[in-house]
Design goal:
The complex is a heterotrimer of chains A (265), B (492) and C (450). By secondary structure, chain B is mainly α. Chain B has 17 helices and two strands. With 450 residues, chain C is mainly α. Chain C folds into two domains: 142 residues, no CATH class; 223 residues, MetI-like fold (Orthogonal Bundle). The chains are: A alpha/beta (265), B mainly alpha (492), C mainly alpha (450). Chain C: This is Phosphate transport system permease protein PstA.
């Protein structure tokens, strides 16, 4: 195990970006998320951990309303982004998702060129006035995605031709390209090898400078390595939320302790 | 004995053999089935199979081979000089067939006795007139050597049939006797029967190959005869289709191909947008209820026989189009652009309707094969559903959709009834969709169902058209299946 | 793809409110709604076509199931029908149908007179309201019942197709201006006779059970005999394609070694499924008729051709059904000492049977509606006037088939046959719907989730 204590030094107080109030999620009959209250801070990496099926991914998908695409999924309660309820009927999920980007478990580059993958978001949201601006956005995003040097000579090559780790960084760069304020990551490293994982983790740490990052992860080490705040979910409940160092060294709830020490999960 | 009863007889014998074999096996084990190597039914099945299979195989082979043997022996009788100019031995032999069939009919109808049919001479009887009375139309007067050959043909054919009955019966009996003789309690009946069944399974699977070979050969040989009568350059590169039953026809496939492709194009113009949009809506937007309701209803369109579409084209769509684009001042548009109900547009529209479910269900499968993560990726970036569909899902599904469209095109090119009833009969190069045009399949039907002499180029051209059609549709299909397979592999 | 130059909107700033839709979002949502509308329109168009087709078929075809009849009391005049008076069948046979026509003319003249209907028509023109087959109907009756000669009996004759069309609204006083077969006074007479109950329109079972009739008598044409032709063809298809198809599928799915020749067979089958049906017709013509000298128009030959055409369909669905049986079943059977052959025939095949049956029914339905190959082997253009009397005759005697009969009617000049064609389609579709429903029920009922 890596040294857990290393993350403690970087913790500092930030403004609240997202706050969830009494969030309930139902999948048809089953009650998937129960009474979740959480405040996610800006310019911070927040990790959601917990055993499989605990609802952490479901909750993450609530934060940019990706659950809307599933017919039987119902969300109750309030989720405020900068004080505005994103489930308000006046909010268009399309506009919301431009602010709250998402990176998925499996790298999912579109069957287009690397350039077009990155340019996709800016194009649909109209972020560039001309080709030069678009080029600039693409380059900036690829640089921030820490993949520019690897792909700058083959921007016209298909994105699907990259390696797994490169694909995932491409997807992160793609998400960044729409200039979101929050970046949601659903187990972004689960399909990657250790080297690619290390690269992505490094990237996440850099992204913290500009974004509020929420990451769902199976790996406690990863949570410990990259996050400043950690939320532990169990059976649809948010059991414990706090400083990452605190959670890993001195959990308050016995369930958190059991999970961290490997007795459940 | 007619072949039908021969088959019944062999089956009856085999059934008898089953019972006898089973009984003998049980008897050899003293009535105790546990002493047998295999279950009693296997002994019965062994006898049944040895009776049935060799006899039926020989019967089948005999039926397939006898005509060529007879042909070969009879054609030896036709002297070189009896073959007229610009004709071939094969064509003379077709005359022989026709005369022989006429004689058969005459005997059946009682117009001639068997004796007369065998000895009749052209010198004394006007055979053409007599057969004509019976409804057998002969293209020309019967020449003596043709008649003689026809009589010889009938004689050999009859004796061949007699021999076949004898051989098959003997073979069935021999099989029965042999296997019955070998039935005893130590005989490994199950293993033998299973090997036999395995062989039958292989045979059944090979039938598919045989069918293809049959298709190719049947058209190939007749096409060769056609190209002996007619220049292949005119067929492939000429510009006119003008069959003339007195000979000297211009038979070029190009105008027919043009009609075929034009009608198929219009059909795809209708079917592809409607089918594709329907598939997109059903797979991306519709909820379960709409899907469960609309999808089977649309697929009904695919289950309707083509004759129904043909009638729809001929009697409903055609006249409706005429009332819009034709009829002069009385028409809806007051124009007179369309004179008859049959036209490229009539056939194309109706064929398009037929192809809608074909395109939609194929595209539906293909769109569903695009991984959900791809859609999530796009939606997660804030794209709307339609942007996701247009810019991510459809481009990803493009190869598969192209494959589906090629399959639909192959269907359209090979479709017969709709064009026979809705397209018309005029072969020409024209861009006007309101005009009648004709297609390859239409011409195949009309050249092969007319009353013309089978040995003429005008009839044989149908086989050359057929083989072209076959190659064309097969090529499209192979290409389409290849593309679709490659596409599926990409997401597996 | 969104054009960069056209979107004039300025880049979105951080912290912008979510509660207000930007102009761009509104535009994109409108595009979204348009796109959805296209989808709905496409489905609606497809369903509309289906509705038009169905309404069209039913609207045009239901008339074929009713027919107009004329009931007349005909005196079977002995002086005309049996001059010698000995009731000798051979003598009676000498009177041709022409000899019976005057009796009918007399009968209708008497009827008209009795009803007090005024008309200038000659008896011959009055009798023209009846089918041209009426004298033959009378003659057939007399030959069957020679004793009836001399009596006056009530007969129900088919009305002429024009009269029938008039009652069904197809023929009007306006439409017959150039029609030599019927005149306005005849229609006036028809109106009177309808009022008197002499002419009436009733259900016509002959359309379903009867045989085709010549060009001159559309009113007498029925689809029954060609239905038998179709039935015999389907028997051949079923008897051949089911065992061969199942055997081929078992081989390919259960036994086939991985070798180049099994690959060839597989590719071959998937390509055969897409060969145009007309090509199978050419094959049938060249091989069965020209080469093997089988008779033209025989349901046996039609059945053979349709078998070759249906086999790929049946093989593909049978293989799917076999594939759906989980390997554990095979392992279980092999585990208790069954041979591979026994495992397949005793365990896998019965479990796959519903799927195989469903596929077979769908294949048969497809074969039942197929027309193009039948054109080439002569099952069109043949007037099947008598139903076959035995199995062998059913297979070997020339006959037609339902779709071929429909095509034949559609080709004829008299529009009265069109109604027959649509009616035939209703019957054909009833068969197809029944078969497909059966297949769906079978599938639902026996569908297994492993």
């Amino acid at each position: 195990m890596y040294d857990i204590a290393t993350t403690e030094k970087t913790v500092e107080q930030q403004v609240t970006k997202i706050s969830a109030r009494d969030v309930q999620v139902y999948y048809g009959e089953s009650h998937a998320i129960k009474d979740v209250n959480v405040d996610i801070e800006d310019k911070t990496v927040t990790a959601f951990i917990g055993p499989s099926g605990c609802g952490k991914s479901t909750f993450l998908r609530c934060l940019n309303r990706m659950n809307d695409t599933i017919d039987i999924c119902k969300v109750k309660g309030e989720i405020l982004l900068d004080g505005e309820n994103i489930y308000d009927p006046k909010v268009d999920p399309v506009q919301l998702r431009a602010k709250v980007g998402m990176v998925f478990q499996k790298p999912n580059p579109f069957p287009k060129s690397i350039y077009d993958n990155i340019a996709y978001g800016p194009r649909i949201h109209g972020l560039a006035r001309n080709k030069a601006e678009l080029d600039e956005i693409v380059e900036k995003s690829l640089r921030r995605g820490a993949i520019w040097n690897e792909v700058k000579d083959r921007l016209d090559a298909p994105g699907t031709g990259l390696s797994g780790g490169q694909q995932q960084r491409l997807c992160i760069a793609r998400a960044i390209a729409t200039e979101p304020e929050v970046l949601l990551m659903d187990e972004p490293c689960s399909a990657l090898d250790p080297i690619a994982t290390a690269q992505v983790e490094e990237l996440i740490d850099e992204l913290r400078q500009n974004y509020s990052v929420v990451i769902v992860t199976h790996s406690m080490q990863q949570a410990a390595r990259v996050s400043q705040k950690t939320a532990f979910f169990h059976l649809g409940n948010l059991v414990e939320f706090g400083e990452t160092g605190q959670i890993f060294t001195n959990p308050e709830d016995p369930r958190t302790e059991s999970y961290i020490t490997g007795r459940i999960g | 004995m007619p072949t039908f009863w021969l088959v019944v007889f062999v089956f009856a014998l085999a059934a008898l053999g089953f019972l006898a074999g089973r009984a003998r096996a049980l008897h050899s084990a003293g009535g105790n089935a546990r002493d047998l190597h295999s279950l009693p039914n296997y002994y019965g099945a062994n006898v049944l199979l040895t009776t049935l299979v060799p006899a039926l195989l020989v019967l089948g082979l005999w039926l397939m081979i006898q005509p060529s043997v007879v042909q070969y022996r009879v054609s030896g009788m036709i002297p070189e000089q009896a073959i007229p100019e610009n004709s071939t031995l094969g064509l003379v032999m077709m005359d022989v067939h026709q005369v022989a069939a006429g004689l058969d009919l005459a005997v059946d109808e009682g117009a001639l006795t068997e004796q007369e049919a065998g000895t009749i001479r052209t010198e004394f009887t006007d055979l053409r007139a007599r057969l004509g009375e019976l409804g057998v139309a002969l293209g020309s007067d019967v020449r003596p050597e043709v008649l003689q050959a026809a009589q010889r043909y009938r004689a050999i054919d009859a004796s061949g049939h007699r021999n076949m009955v004898i051989v098959v019966t003997l073979l069935a009996l021999a099989g029965l006797g042999f296997s019955w003789q070998h039935t005893n309690k130590d005989f490994r009946a199950r293993n033998v029967v299973e090997q036999g069944i395995y062989a039958l399974l292989v045979l059944a699977a090979l039938l598919a190959i045989l069918t293809t070979i049959g298709i190719v050969l049947s058209m190939f040989f007749e096409s060769i005869s056609f190209f002996k009568l007619h220049s292949w350059t005119d067929f492939f590169f000429g510009g006119t289709w003008a069959p003339n039953f007195r000979g000297d026809s211009e038979l070029s496939i190009l105008p027919l191909l043009w009609g075929t492709l034009y009608i198929s194009f219009i059909a795809l113009l209708v079917a592809v947008p409607v089918g594709l949009f329907a598939a997109v809506y059903l797979s991306e937007y519709a909820n379960g209820h709409v899907r469960a309701f609309a999808k089977p209803l649309l697929e009904i369109l695919a289950g309707i026989p083509t004759i129904v579409y043909g009638l729809f084209a001929l009697l409903t769509v055609g006249p409706a189009l005429v009332s819009v684009f034709g009829n002069g001042p009385e028409g809806l548009l007051g124009v007179d652009w369309m004179s008859g109900a049959t036209s490229v547009l009539t056939a194309g529209l109706v064929m398009g309707i037929m192809l809608i479910p074909f395109v939609s269900s194929l595209s539906d499968d293909i769109i569903n094969a695009v991984p959900q993560t791809m859609r999530d990726g796009s939606l997660g970036l804030g794209a709307t559903k339609s942007e996701t569909v247009r810019q991510v899902v459809l481009p990803a599904a493009l190869p598969g959709i192209v494959g589906a469209i090629l399959l639909a095109a192959s269907r359209a090119i090979g479709e017969t009834m709709i064009v026979v009833m809705g397209a018309g009969a005029i072969a020409k190069f024209s861009l006007n969709p309101l005009e009648s045009m004709t297609t390859i399949t239409t011409r195949i039907v009309s050249q092969l169902t007319g009353d013309t002499d089978f040995a003429s180029a005008e009839t044989l051209v149908a086989f050359a058209l057929g083989i072209t059609l076959f190659v064309l549709t097969l090529g499209l299909n192979v290409l389409a299946l290849y593309i679709v397979r490659k596409y599926r592999e990409q997401y597996e | 793809m969104t054009d960069i130059s056209q979107n004039g909107s300025t880049p979105r700033k951080h912290g912008e409110t979510l509660m207000k839709l930007t102009a761009r979002t509104k535009r994109r949502n409108a595009a979204e709604r348009r796109f959805q509308a296209y989808g709905i329109a496409a489905i609606a168009a497809g369903l509309l076509m289906l509705a038009i087709l169905v309404v069209n078929i039913v609207g045009n075809g239901y008339g074929a199931f009713t027919q107009t009849f004329v009931t007349l009391d005909v005196t079977l005049d002995a002086a005309k029908l049996d001059k010698k008076g000995q009731r000798n069948l051979d003598d009676i046979k000498k009177v041709s149908t022409f000899g019976y026509a005057p009796l009918i003319q007399k009968a209708i003249e008497a009827k008209v007179a009795a009803l007090g209907v005024k008309t200038d028509l000659k008896p011959k023109d009055m009798a023209a309201l009846l089918s041209k087959g009426a004298p033959a109907q009378l003659r057939d009756y007399v030959l069957e019942h020679p004793d009836a000669i001399g009596k006056t009996l009530s007969f129900r004759f088919l009305a002429n197709s024009r009269v029938d069309g008039y009652l069904k609204g197809r023929v009007t006083r306006h439409s017959i201006e150039n029609d030599k077969n019927i005149s306005v006074p005849q229609l006036d007479l028809t109106d009177q006779l309808v009022k008197a109950g002499v002419i009436e329109k009733t259900f016509n079972s002959e359309f379903i059970l009867g045989s085709d009739a010549s060009d001159q008598r559309p009113e007498a044409a029925g689809i029954g005999t060609s239905m038998l032709g179709s039935l015999f063809m389907m028997l051949v298809v079923l008897a051949l394609s089911l065992p061969i198809g199942v055997a081929a599928s078992i081989f390919l799915e259960e036994f086939a070694p991985k070798a180049w020749w099994t690959d060839v067979i597989e590719v071959n089958i998937s390509n055969l499924a897409a060969v145009p049906s007309i090509v199978f017709g050419i094959l049938g013509l060249a091989v069965f008729i020209n080469y093997m000298n089988q008779p033209m128009s025989a349901p046996l030959v039609g059945g053979l051709v349709l078998t070759l055409m249906t086999l790929p369909t049946i093989i593909i669905s049978t293989r799917a059904a076999l594939k759906a049986v989980p390997p554990s079943i095979r392992d279980a059977a092999l585990g208790v000492g069954a041979s591979k052959m026994q495992a397949v025939f005793h365990h896998v095949l019965p479990l796959a049977a519903p799927g195989i049956l469903t596929g077979t029914i769908i294949g048969l339905a497809q074969a039942l509606g197929e027309t193009a190959p039948l054109l080439l082997i002569g099952m069109v253009g043949f007037i099947a006037s008598n139903p076959p009397d035995s199995l062998a005759a059913g297979l070997m005697e020339p006959n037609s088939a339902m779709p071929a009969q429909i095509y034949e009617w559609a080709k004829r000049a008299d529009p009265a046959f069109y109604e027959r064609a649509w009616g035939g389609i209703i019957i054909l579709l009833v068969f197809l719907v029944t078969m497909n429903t059966l297949a769906v029920i079978l599938r639902r009922r026996f569908e297994r989730r492993w």
